[in-house]
Amino acid sequence: MKILSFHNESWERDFLKEKLPAAEFLFFEGTVQDNADMRNDEAEVLSVFVDSHIGKEELDRFPKVKLIATRSTGFDHIDLIETAAHGIVVSNVPTYGENTVAEQAFALLLALSRRIYESYDRVLKEGTFSPEGLRGFDLQGKTMGVVGTGHIGVHTIRIAKGFEMEVVAFDVHRNEELAARMGFRYAEFDELIASSDVISLHAPYNEHTHHMINMDNVGKIKKGAYLINTARGGLVETRAMITALESGILAGAGLDVLEEEGYMKDDVVLLTQEHPNPESLAMVLSNQYLIDHPRVLITPHNAFNTKEAIERILSVTTENVKAFAGGTPQNVINR
């Protein structure tokens, strides 16, 4: 079986070769788009991460591919209509990061609640050991609204309860037995954003969740709330988030993802174009506003990135490949 694998560190290559000794690998640094001139008429498996978009143009470059094994839980970077049209199975890694991403959400929240970055920056740049102006707030007794009660959302709730927070949750598929056992309650989305001191997003990104927080409902958010997004940037309309920050509806935000974050990688190219696309330019400037905001903390889509999580991702990916080769595909998302 011939496998094309993109976005690999050197140790990952050894890991994959050891787990799939009979496979013939071709490894490529970067994304499928970074290797735009590369075509292959023999590969049967394509292994990618979330930064590789897979649509018709890409599939035409790999005509014999029958399995796309994405090394992620999310799959909005893959055009499922096109893969279905090509008869391609798409598998993901559904549960690698429930604790990993939830821990990042709380890392961002604690950094905001205890003003960690500002405190560190003061000591580093000013050499001043004064806490003046750095007063934070307790998590105990606050209400956390968790949007999405899948694996990551449930682990986020578990951590929140450890901090003795009240938890309300929103999900289109409610699990009342789980809520009773873990001590949280479900609420409608508008109620959640209106009653939560902290809103943490853990929903998948699709046409139904696009801009869950938007210009029409941002005014319903509890004044002074904090927004944490470790899921997908497209869940939040950037313009609405900026409006909420400017007006004081949001007191701050911790973001591991940005809407159209791919623009940030190519912002210099975009800004130096003779006639830059106005929408792309506006998004770059909006994201830069968030980066510069004193009460917004941004990390570069890094919530998944621990040694243990990467090993889990690679292990499940190899099992997905083995299952497909054995005629019993697993973790299939496009049945």
Q: Please name the CATH topology of the largest domain.
A: Rossmann fold
Instruction: Domain count, please report it.
Output: 2
Beta fraction of the residues?
Answer: 15-25%
Write down the secondary-structure element order: EHEEHEHEHHEHEHEHEEHEHHHEH
Corresponding CATH architecture of the largest domain:
3-Layer(aba) Sandwich
> Counting H and I runs of at least 4 residues, what is the number of helices?
13
Please give the radius of gyration in angstroms: 21 Å
Helix content: 25-40%
Point out poorly predicted stretches.
268-272
| Biggest pleated-sheet summary | 7 strands, parallel
The CATH class of the largest domain is identified as Alpha Beta
Give the spatial strand order of the biggest sheet: 8-7-6-9-10-11-12
What is the terminal-to-terminal distance? 22 Å
Q: State the total count of DSSP E strands.
A: 12
Q: Which term fits the overall shape?
A: globular
InterPro entries: D-isomer_2_OHA_DH_cat_dom, D-isomer_DH_CS, D-isomer_DH_CS1, D-isomer_DH_NAD-bd, D-LDH-like, NAD(P)-bd_dom_sf
Family: Belongs to the D-isomer specific 2-hydroxyacid dehydrogenase family.
Domain D-isomer specific 2-hydroxyacid dehydrogenase catalytic: 32-334
Domain D-isomer specific 2-hydroxyacid dehydrogenase NAD-binding: 106-303
Description:
The strands form two sheets. This protein has a seven-stranded parallel sheet, with helices on both faces. Strands 2-1-3-4-5 form a five-stranded parallel sheet. It starts with a strand and ends in a 10-residue tail after the last helix. About 1% of the residues have low confidence. It has two domains: 112 residues, 3-Layer(aba) Sandwich (Rossmann fold), CATH 3.40.50; 201 residues, Rossmann fold, CATH 3.40.50. Helix 1 runs parallel beside helix 13 and helix 4 packs across helix 6. The protein has 335 residues and is of the alpha/beta class. The radius of gyration is 21 Å and the shape is globular. The protein is built from 13 helices and twelve strands. Helix content is 39%, strand content 15%. Keywords: NAD, Oxidoreductase. It holds the Pfam family 2-Hacid_dh_C.
